[in-house]
Design brief:
By secondary structure, this protein is an alpha/beta fold. About 35% of the residues lie in helices and about 25% in strands. Helix 5 runs parallel beside helix 6. The N and C termini lie close together (about 10 Å).
C-alpha cells in the first residue's frame, strides 16, 4: 500500500478538486483520507454515506460543579487564559478560552472543579461513489488539536487499505505549513504539491516545500491555472528544476472546473475537454513515478 499526500501552500489552488479527481480515477483501488479537517469539503464531490461516525476527544476541559462551588474566586485569580467567567455571581468555564491545564482544579478548596475529556470533532467512515471508502472528519468550532484528528483519519484509512488489500491511500492535506500538514506528511510515499502562478502562490509553494524536504519524501508539483501569469509560471518551473521536484503537469485555467464543482462532480466526470485529459495524464504520471 502506497500513500500519496496532496497539499498546497495556500488555499484556493484547486488541491481538493484535483485530489477528488484522482480518487475517481483510482476507483476501488484507492482509499481516500480527507485530512483537511479544519475545512473539510471532499464530501461535496465524493458523495459519502456517513455509514460509521464517532466522536473524537483530545485534551481536557475544566468543569465547575455549582453545588460544590463556594464562589471564592481562586480559580478566576489563577487562570492565565481568561478561562473563568463570572455570571450573576456564579463562576463558570469559558469553553473557548479554557486550555484544560488543570491549575484551577488544584487551587479549588472544595474540589468543585474537575477536568473532563474534550470533544473536539467527529470522524466518519463512508462508502463513496467510486465504490471505495473515504475516512473524513470535521474539527469542532474553535477546537484545537487538529493534528491529532488528522493522525486519526490517516491511521484509520491506512488500516482499511491494509485490511482490504488496496493499492493506494490518497490524502487531501490541509493548506499551509501547520501541525495538520506535518501530521498529513507522516508516513507518505509521495507528495503532490498543487500551486498557482500568483505571488502568494509561489511564495507559499516554496514555504511548504521547505517543510516537505525535512521529511525526505519524493515530490512532484502540478501548476494549476498556469496561463493566468506565465511569467510567474516560468519562475515556478525554474524552482522545480533547481529543487529536483518532478513537474507533473501544467493545467490551464478553465471555468469548467468551477461548473463541475457546482454540480458536485469532479472535472474528470464533467467534461471531455483537454483539461480532463491533462488531469488523467497527471494521475498516470504520479502512478509511474511513485516510489
Amino acid at each position: 500500500m502506497k500513500e500519496i499526500v496532496v497539499i498546497s501552500g495556500k488555499g484556493g489552488t484547486g488541491k481538493t478538486s484535483l485530489t477528488a479527481s484522482f480518487a475517481v480515477l483510482g476507483g476501488e483501488d484507492v482509499i481516500v483520507a480527507d485530512c483537511d479537517v479544519d475545512a473539510a469539503d471532499m464530501h461535496l464531490l465524493l458523495e459519502p454515506d456517513f455509514e460509521e461516525s464517532e466522536d473524537f476527544y483530545s485534551g481536557e476541559l475544566a468543569y465547575i460543579s455549582q453545588n460544590e462551588c463556594i464562589a471564592c474566586g481562586k480559580c478566576f485569580d489563577v487562570c492565565r487564559f481568561d478561562g473563568i467567567d463570572v455570571v450573576n455571581g456564579s463562576y463558570t468555564v469559558n469553553e473557548l478560552n479554557c486550555e484544560g491545564c488543570g491549575f484551577c482544579a488544584r487551587v479549588c478548596p472544595t474540589e468543585a472543579i474537575t477536568n473532563k475529556p474534550l470533544k473536539v470533532g467527529k470522524w466518519h467512515n463512508s462508502n463513496i461513489k467510486t465504490g471505495s471508502i473515504m475516512v473524513h472528519a470535521r474539527l469542532g468550532i474553535g477546537a484545537d488539536n487538529s493534528g491529532k484528528l488528522v493522525a486519526k483519519v490517516k491511521n484509520e484509512a491506512k488500516e482499511i487499505a491494509e485490511d482490504e488489500f488496496k493499492d493506494y491511500v490518497i490524502v487531501d492535506g490541509s493548506p499551509g505549513v501547520g501541525c495538520p500538514v506535518v501530521s498529513s506528511l507522516s508516513g507518505a510515499k509521495f507528495v503532490v504539491l498543487v500551486t498557482e502562478p500568483s505571488v502568494s502562490g509561489f511564495h507559499d509553494l516554496k514555504r511548504v516545500y521547505e517543510l516537505v524536504k525535512k521529511f525526505n519524501i519524493k515530490t512532484g508539483c502540478i501548476i494549476n491555472k498556469f496561463d493566468i501569469n506565465k511569467s510567474i509560471t516560468s519562475e515556478i518551473q525554474k524552482f522545480l528544476t533547481e529543487e529536483n521536484i518532478v513537474h507533473i503537469s501544467s493545467l490551464p485555467y478553465d471555468e469548467d472546473f468551477t461548473k463541475a464543482m457546482t454540480e458536485g462532480l469532479t472535472i474528470v466526470e464533467y467534461t471531455n475537454t483537454n483539461l480532463k485529459k491533462l488531469v488523467i495524464d497527471s494521475w498516470n504520471t504520479i502512478l509511474k513515478i511513485i516510489p
